[in-house]
Amino acid sequence: MGTRLLVLDMDGTIADTDLLLVLSWLELYRRHAPGKKPCLSRIMEFSGPPIRDSLIEEFPDVDPDLSVKEFSEISGSLYERWVTTYPGAIDALRRLKGKGFLLAVLTNKRQDLAERVVGILGMEGLFSLVLGGGSVPPKPDPTGLLEVFSRLGVDPEDGFYMGDTEFDVLAAKNAGVPSILADWGPRRLPKGLSPDLRVSSYQELLEVLGA
Q1: Which side of the chain, N or C, has fewer Cβ within a 10 Å radius?
Q2: What is the Cα–Cα distance from 18 to 203, expressed in whole angstroms?
């Protein structure tokens, strides 16, 4: 086995943005569907897919360029106040890096925002690469994940991709990369989803990776 690489999704995997997501969507409902009463489980389904697709689905009569702009502005104003890491994330990733793992991020989130979140969370210097949406097709397309492995010079079978949604597991499968499901979020996952590994905490991640 060559150099080991752990690539992570961001929202729902490293960064707990669930409250931020809910607050942002509630403001959009207030503006564009004031009579609608969305349930929490419905809003949680919007974490993972490309945000533009979710906005078109939920607000079909609103210009998607406008709703995407609004979502970006609303959520962008909330990050410093509400985004946080999942318990044990920073310590676990530092330990893995100390054990010789390369670490990287692949997210559908915009590149500039992904880099901003890394800074807000105090995780500068942990990742060899942060690759956000815009320059590669969104997951579950494997292009972005394969690009991460290529740019870091690691064979796909010598690493893992960890995320919290079906899109993450499918992206890994499509790229021929072993998948790890971060099974601690509120998202509903389809039956039959078969990640290679499943962890319920960062401590368990250390255990399964032998760190």
Answers
A1: N
A2: 21
- How distant, in Å, are the alpha carbons of 36, 61, 64, 155, 182 from that of 27? 12, 17, 16, 43, 28
Q: What is the pLDDT of residues 131-143, one digit of tens each?
A: 998 888 999 999 9
Beta bridge partners of 7: 104, 161
Contact criterion met (CB below 8 Å) for 47 and 4: no
**pLDDT interval class at 101 (50, 70, 90):** very high
What CA–CA distance (Å, rounded) separates 171 from 179?
9
The phi-psi region of residue 192 (left if phi > 0; otherwise alpha if psi is between -120 and 50; otherwise beta) is left
Q: How far apart are the C-alpha atoms of 122 and 84, rounded to whole Å?
A: 10
Q: Which residues of 36-58 are buried (b: 16+ CB within 10 A; e: fewer)?
A: eeeeeeebbebbbbbbeebbeeb
Question: What's the rounded Cα separation, in Å, for the pair 171 and 175?
Answer: 6
Q: What is the pTM of this model?
A: 0.89
What are the strands, taking DSSP E only, across the chain? 5-8, 15-16, 84-85, 102-110, 129-133, 159-163, 179-182, 197-199
Residue 2: per-residue pLDDT: 57
Q: Chain-wide mean pLDDT for the chain? A: 93
Position 46 confidence tier, pLDDT thresholds 50, 70, 90: confident
Tell me the mean pLDDT in the region 93-118. Answer: 95
Structure tokens at 104: 């990287």
